[in-house]
Amino acid sequence: MNAKLLILAIGIFTTSCSTVRVAADYETTASFDHYKTFAFYKPGVDQAKISDLDKRRILHAIDQGLQEKGLSKSKNPDLLVSIFTKENKEVTVGNNGGMMMGWGWSPWWTFGQMGNIVTTTTEGSLYIDLVDAKTNHLIWQGLGEARLNPTEDVTKKEERIRHIVHEILRQFPPQSE
Fold this sequence. Notes:
Strand content: 35-45%
CATH topology: Double Stranded RNA Binding Domain
Largest sheet: 6 strands, mixed
Number of domains: 1
Order of helices and strands: HEEHHEEEEEEH
Radius of gyration: 22 Å
Shape: elongated
Strand order of the largest sheet: 1-8-7-4-2-3
CATH architecture: 2-Layer Sandwich
CATH class: Alpha Beta
Helix content: 10-25%
Number of helices: 4
């Protein structure tokens, strides 16, 4: 996989008006009211295949999001937080809708262009895992997916990361059915 694309895996999502698709899964027997503290799980965070800059942006957004939910950072946490990223390329081939005019079999006069247009888009996925620190079991996982934009400036990138993390963490803690 191209190293530049890995760098873009999370932080360089498209503009803020783009859609972020989110989903969450959780352990139904977990009592989420008992979790009050968290820390980042360094081995898991270190394995995320994104740039260190984007990794810090993501961790900062998660830190803020969990603190807004009443959790605090601790050296002896109830929850361990890890992240995982991946990307997926989608290639679309379409006709540009050109028009041809002429008479008989020859000669042909053309207006517009005929042919196929090939576009490639890259979508990034960010997984946020919350692990019970005592049992070492995954109790909650949030997922956010959005298109990547390699030309986005740093300010928009930071804003986009905060938005994606916020949308994922809206699913935590799970609401009783």
